[in-house]
Amino acid sequence: MSNVHQFNSKDLILEKSCDWISAIDRGLTDDEKEQFKLWMMQSTAHQDSIYELAQLWDELSVLNELSHLFPQRNNTKTSKNKWMFSYSIAASLFAALMVCSYLLINLENSYNQELAKVNYTKIYKTKVGEQATYVLPDGTIMQLNTNSLLEVAYSKGRRQLLLSRGEGRFNVAKDATRPFSVMAGDKSFTALGTVFNVQRNTSSDLELVVTEGKVMITDPSVAVDANDFKDYQLADNSTKKIRQINANIVTSGEKAVIEQSVTKPITQLSMNDVQRDLAWQNGMLIFNGEELSDALNEVSRYTATRFELSSAELASIKVAGVFKAGDVEGLLESLQTNFSIDHERLGEHVVTLKHHTES
Q: Which of 17, 41, 71, 251 is the most exposed place for a label (fewest CB within 10 A)?
């Protein structure tokens, strides 16, 4: 059933009467006076509505004007039924105004929401150590990792995002008419109905992990339009087209590493691999055999603290464990307990590390 309010003849008369009363209050022109007289002569219902509203309006100028225009009308009828009718009109008028206001507000909100889905631009960013989740106007859920900067630009034909730094996870709302692409460095990642994670290390070093659906990797110069979008979603049937634009398709459970703008062979991830790569989404960091220097570089993304290692031998130590992102003290304590690695603070944001035997 439609929620649109259907006005009956009484509602229309009431609405017109309100217009006339307002016009009388401000003062009728000669032409308006003639139009008003003709409207009043069309129906006794018009006359009754005008006089009852005039009583409610309670403006002497209105009553005087009516008395001047229609001197024959008896304005002294104030029976109980008349006043009850006046009360009814007032209630109806109030209800009509409330309904109109409600409809206008909701129509405006709906219009603004639909407009935002089509044309929407905004910049999102997080500080060092900060993570944030946003819902875009089309329903896409976006989670940004530490120290990230991303610009969203929606238009009628496409949904385009620019990741200038950092890392983001995108749970993309399906829209067959508008491709969803994340540009990072010199690559573009186009979602084919998917959930995926993009990490930008440098403009030429990137990582992509797909946890649902498919993502196509291309150069930003390759524009995926809506007509081709459905074809790309059926990647198995568009191998030739994908080869022509030098694209790579990454599917659920796979990872693509891009180094020096070159996409390395796509790898299949185990469940543990996925959990390790995406642990940041739960505020954690998981290491499983990474060199200490690499692990510390990852930790540094979440804090202002910088680490200095005393030797190459120390940098190459393999580390493993689960740490809370940004918890430098917990990391230093773990290194002391498990690897006998001592630390010393040089100022507020610099920590030097060395083997206990070097002390």
A: 71
* DSSP string over 74-115: -TT---HHHHHHHHHHHHHHHHHHHHHHHHHHHHHHHHHHHH
Residue 60 burial (CB count, 10 A)? 8
Q: CA 139 to CA 172: how far, in whole Å?
A: 8
pLDDT tens digits along 199-213: 999 989 999 999 999
* pTM: predicted TM-score of the whole model, two decimal places: 0.63
Partners of 153 in the beta sheet?
Answer: 121, 160
Residue closest to 163 by CA, chosen among 132, 196, 134, 188: 188
* Identity of the amino acid at 279: A
Measured CA to CA in angstroms, residue 91 lies from 3, 72, 97, 98 at distances of: 20, 29, 10, 10
Residue linked to tokens 């896409």: 140
Terminal-to-terminal C-alpha distance of the chain: 81
Tokens representing 315 are 């940098």
For residue 92, pLDDT beyond 60: no
Q: What phi, psi does 138 have (nearest 5°)?
A: -85, 0
Q: Is residue 198 within 8 Å of residue 172, measured between CB atoms?
A: no
Strand partners, 135: 141
In tens, the pLDDT along 289-323 reads 899 999 999 999 999 999 999 899 999 999 988 88
pLDDT digits 0-9 by tens, 154-201: 998 889 999 999 999 999 998 888 899 999 998 999 997 789 999 999
**Which of 298, 356, 347 shows the shortest CA–CA distance to 327?**
298
Q: Tokens in use for 266?
A: 């796509």
What are the residues facing 263 on neighbouring strands?
A: 258
Both structure tokens of 157: 């034909």
- Spatial distance between the Cα atoms of 243 and 232, rounded to a whole number of angstroms: 12
User: Whose CA is closest to 198, among 229, 232, 165?
Assistant: 165
- Which residues are CB-contacts of 177 (< 8 A; sequence separation ≥ 6)? 157, 226, 229
Name every residue whose Cβ is closer than 8 Å to that of residue 294 and which is 6 or more positions away in sequence: none
